[in-house]
Design a protein that fits this description.
By secondary structure, the chain is an alpha+beta fold. The protein contains 18 helices and 20 strands. The protein folds into three domains: 41-215 and 350-490, FAD/NAD(P)-binding domain, CATH 3.50.50; 225-341, no CATH class; 493-621. Strand 10 and strand 11 (257-260) form a beta hairpin.
């Protein structure tokens, strides 16, 4: 304010002190980088531990603190603010949107039921409509996220602010210590939401977790990461025409999206042995450029910033060799030029926290509903490759399944919810549930749950056992536009006589149904399938054989039974001995015996899956 005369100076001497007085007595927050709105103090008489935190003032205390400006974090913060909470949103980078804006992943993995119902609505649907659909312009998405936060007066946004460590009182999370503008600062809150991609708040707070596929005995396996790259001077009509007529039923193209070129992608031989090119997922931007999701990088420690930066550098070097190949082999890219790459890697998997309930692969592929549903997903179980020798797989394709509130509530630490790809899912279930639309729905639910928790002075853990609390959260979400309709959808495969065997080996990632949920149970067994499920089952059960078991090209019953016995460490000379041993141990059950009477018969997958599943269970139960 500019004071132009003595009269104005006189009033200024009265008004300015009054403004300062009102500021510190009404609970207003300091201005933040984007939004100067108030953060109101409520429930001052509650027994929350944050009330006793040291150095507590009205400008460093919030109802809700959301760590992580990923799409899930934006949804959580906006949801909390719409519920009347004062919210602090902390993001360690320069912009909101994370994977979408800085990772340039502008191709949403949508979740529709097989009847065409859009399952992810609410705040996610607001974002989807604002950016214009499944494929969108990255700069537009950045503005939409910013606008969503700016519209809420009670959100204080801190960009370029990194988490240093959680502040706890026993098992109660009461605050966060951050690095902001070169200084260490502390912020305290009643409730917290970890919306970081890697559970960066939950893990150091003491929440238990696994990494990658550790939970299924594959410690060394984590899905490869991707660096999205941007090209200009592409011929979009030619791309569309080629992908619509290339004879690949999995290729396709539209006005803004295209997908295909599998043969061309997999035929490329990278210079870097830890990189692979696959088929293109292409997202067209408003300026005509395209973003390509296709370059997979292996051997990256996603928790190490230096390793991440080296991975980006490796991919950029590879692009020098890749661009001539693309111009020569990809229709529509004859004149393409590299514009640049994303700032961040697309990391698909890291930590999987353990919560009150872990969503399982059976939940996903049996289309299970949960009484405490707070989101519904349906994306195929897409397990991307973890090494150069691995090509990934689609484990199955659900109609729909629900995410229980319990999967957001971590073990051991109070006042905290975890949303997004590091929520409480098993590694295989995360192959579906990790996608952004599901995570944004979880974020919205977490914001509503935080408001309920504070208002009713009930912990998140207590809410997992309260039908009244969950019903109230569900009703509020539905009132805001969420889709949470109960469902009862039976998977017909559950009636197959060998389904228990399928479930056992599917939980280990060893049998795959693909997009059509076809496990080939009536197909004849082949060498590679049998060798894989036998050796991997033994390994995962902790009882590896002395050497890798190999069989002939067309294994028949005699060879299969002897191989299974050998896997147990039994040296058998005849198939009769193998039958006796496996029958005595309950591996060759009465149900299976009729299928293995003819020594020369080549069995179907169903029989062998059941046999190997029984072997796995036996080994697991035997010290």
């Amino acid at each position: 304010m500019v004071v132009k005369d003595l009269t104005n100076r006189f009033y200024a001497t009265l008004i300015i002190p009054l403004l300062f007085f009102l500021f510190f007595t009404t609970g207003c927050t300091v201005q933040n980088e984007i939004n100067p709105g108030p953060a109101h103090m409520e429930n001052k008489n509650s027994s929350d531990k944050a009330e006793t935190a040291p150095h507590l003032t009205q400008i460093n205390y919030y109802d809700l603190i959301v760590v992580g400006g990923e799409p899930e974090g934006v949804a959580a913060a906006v949801s909390g603010a719409r519920s009347g909470l004062s919210v602090l949103l902390i993001e360690d980078d320069r912009a909101l949107g994370g994977l979408i804006t800085l990772g340039k992943l502008s191709f949403l993995d949508m979740n529709y039921g097989k009847d065409g119902t859009l399952l992810t609505r609410g705040i996610f649907k607001e974002f989807y409509d604002a950016v214009g659909g499944t494929v969108f312009d990255v700069e537009k998405a950045k503005k939409v996220f910013t606008d969503m936060v700016e519209e809420q007066d009670t959100i204080t946004l801190k960009l370029n602010t990194s988490l240093v460590e959680p502040i706890k009182d026993g098992n109660n999370l009461i605050g966060v210590r951050v690095r902001e503008g070169g200084e260490i600062k502390e912020y305290y809150g009643k409730r917290f939401i970890d919306a970081t991609a890697d559970a960066d708040l939950a893990a150091p707070a003491g929440v238990p977790y696994t990494i990658g596929r550790e939970d299924i005995g594959e410690k060394e396996k984590t899905m490869g990461v991707t660096l999205v790259f941007e090209l200009t001077n592409v011929n979009w009509p030619r791309i569309v025409n080629y992908l619509r007529t290339d004879g690949d039923k999995y290729s396709g193209a539209g006005k803004r999206a295209a997908w295909g070129y599998k043969k061309e992608g997999y035929s490329y031989e990278p210079k870097d042995p830890g990189i692979r090119l696959r088929g293109f997922n292409i997202a067209r931007q408003d300026n005509g450029n395209v973003l390509i999701n296709a370059l997979i990088i292996f051997g990256v420690d996603v928790f190490d910033p230096e390793s991440r930066q080296k991975a980006i550098a490796r991919a950029r070097r590879e692009l020098e060799y890749l661009m001539p190949y693309i111009r020569e082999n990809f229709a529509g890219f004859e004149n393409a030029e590299l514009v640049g790459t994303a700032e961040q890697l697309y990391v698909r998997e890291s930590r999987h926290i353990i919560g009150e309930y872990q969503l399982t692969i059976d939940d996903v592929l049996e289309n299970r509903d949960h009484w405490d549903r707070i989101a519904i997903g349906s994306y195929p179980v897409d397990i991307q490759p973890s090494s150069k020798d691995d090509y990934g797989f689609v484990l199955g394709n659900p109609d729909r399944y629900s995410i229980p509130f319990r999967s957001l509530v971590p073990l051991k630490i109070e006042n905290l919810l975890v949303v997004g790809r590091s929520a409480s899912y098993t590694s295989l279930a995360a192959g579906s549930a990790r996608v952004i639309p599901v995570g944004m729905c979880e974020g919205e639910a977490a914001g509503v749950a935080a408001a309920y928790s504070i208002k009713h002075n009930i912990s998140f853990r207590e809410m997992t056992k309260s039908e009244e609390a969950i019903k109230s959260v569900q009703e509020e979400l539905v009132a805001r536009g969420a889709y949470l309709e109960p469902f009862n959808i039976k998977d017909p495969l559950t009636d197959h006589w060998a389904y228990e065997g399928v479930k056992t080996l599917r939980r280990l990632g060893l049998v795959k149904g693909g997009y059509n949920n076809d496990y080939g149970l009536n197909e004849k067994i082949d060498k590679w399938f049998f060798q894989t499920i036998l050796n991997e089952s033994l390994k995962k059960a902790g009882s590896p054989p002395g050497r890798y078991i190999e069989v002939s090209a067309r294994p028949a019953n005699e060879e299969i039974l002897k191989s299974v016995a050998f896997g147990l460490g039994k040296q058998v000379e005849t198939v009769h001995e193998a039958r006796e041993i496996l029958s005595e141990l309950g591996i060759l059950t009465d149900e299976l015996k009729p299928y293995f009477t003819d020594n020369n018969k080549r069995p179907n997958k169903a029989e062998v899956i059941m046999l190997v599943a029984n072997l796995y269970k036996y080994c697991l139960a035997t010290p």
